[in-house]
Structure formats: structure tokens, C-alpha cells
Amino acid sequence: MFNTPHAPRGALIAILAVIIASEVALQMADLGWIGSPRWRSLAYQYGAFWPGLLDSWAPNYAAQPVTMFVSYAFLHGGLGHLAGNALALWFLGQGVVTRIGQGGFLGVFALTALGGAVSFAALSAGNTPMVGASGALFGLIGIGVGWRFFDSTAAILRRARYALGSIALMVLLNILLNWWYNGHLAWQAHLGGFVTGLVLAKWLGARPRDFMAPQRELH
């Protein structure tokens, strides 16, 4: 999707460093190497997205009902969960950084994580907590699909076919992931992140296009 010439990637590396460091620390605590095995439950209590906090639950600190809309993206459910998201973030994030800069990338990451959380809160049933950066990752996919659609000079029907094909692939990917995780998939966050990315692609549509692969007809 992206052709990524060299560009400063400090913001992307910083987010990856925080995500990786937090899960590595929790893994070490789980094994009793540092801290306490309670660290993971405490991290989730204070940083995960809890739908109940938007209802009648009492927060652990005053700002938690607000900060959880982004903080959940920096926590993961284990090394496998982390590895998949970190690799995807590195691959997808480079094209976004190249196109809109490091500050723009940070904004996109935060807004798509926010969009994922809003969608999860609106569409999920129950009060199961959510962690993981996949809402933002699907947001990066959404902005990439949107840029490809808006940048293309192909006829509108061909662009629409490309967009619908991309959406179909996202649906299939979520079905497979839901099977892999035995039904414990926050597809609502994926949907919200993806839609937010599409909206941001239109809003940021006037940006230069040199990060993209050479423009061609969509088939």
C-alpha cells in the first residue's frame, strides 16, 4: 500500500518503544522477575478501556474516563498480541509518517485510537475491558485506503470497486481474527479505527503524494 522513502521516524519509534516496553515489563512481572505479578491487573485497571466507566462505575482517578480512550492502545494481552500489532504498526506507520510528518502521525494514531474506543463503547455489549493498538492500526489501514482512493485518477467506478474490495478484505480479516482469538476480538474498535482513518484521509487529502506507489488505474 505504501512506498516509503527515508523520512524521520522518531515518533513512530517512540510509540513502538512505549508499547513494547510496557508489555515486556508486564511479562517480566508475570514471571516474577521484577515487581509483582499484580502489575498486569493494575495496568489494566488503570489503563484499559472500560465501558462501565462511561456508565456508573467509579474511576480509579478523575481523568480515567477520558485518558482510557487512548491509553488502552499502549497495553496488550501478551507477547503474541504485541508482536502482531508492533509489526503491523512499523509497516503501516512509515507511509503515514512520510506523508504527513511525525506530528501528523501522532495525531492520526491518537484520533484513530479514539475512534476505535468510541465505536467499541457504542457497539459492544457488556463491560469487558479492551486493550491493544489494533484500533489505531485499522485506522492506518483506513487512511491508506482513503488516500489511494482520493489520489487516484481512475474513473469513479474503478475507485469505488477498489474501496469496496478493501472493505471486503477488512471484513474477511476480522472474521479470521475473531476465529483465531476464539471470539474475543474487539472488532468494534477495528471498525471505528478504520472509518476514522477514511475520514482523516479525506481531511488530509491535499497532502503531497510522493510517498505513494506510482499512480495507476485501479483494477
UniProtKB/TrEMBL annotation:
Picking any one GO molecular function of the record gives:
serine-type endopeptidase activity
Q: Where in the cell is it found?
A: Membrane
Its domain of life? Bacteria
Location of the Peptidase S54 rhomboid domain: 67-204
Q: Which residues form a coiled coil?
A: none
Q: Biological process GO annotation list? A: proteolysis
**What is the membrane topology noted in the UniProt record heading this document?**
Multi-pass membrane protein
Q: Which GO terms describe its cellular component?
A: membrane
Which regions span the lipid bilayer?
A: 69-92, 104-125, 131-150, 162-181, 187-206
| Main location (coarse class) | membrane
> What are the protein's UniProt keywords?
Hydrolase, Membrane, Protease, Transmembrane, Transmembrane helix
Q: Which PANTHER family match?
A: PRESENILIN-ASSOCIATED RHOMBOID-LIKE PROTEIN, MITOCHONDRIAL (PTHR43731:SF14), RHOMBOID PROTEASE (PTHR43731)
Q: Which family does it belong to?
A: Belongs to the peptidase S54 family.
Q: What is the protein's name according to its record?
A: Rhomboid family intramembrane serine protease
Organism this protein belongs to: Neptunicoccus cionae
Q: What is the lineage of its organism?
A: Bacteria, Pseudomonadati, Pseudomonadota, Alphaproteobacteria, Rhodobacterales
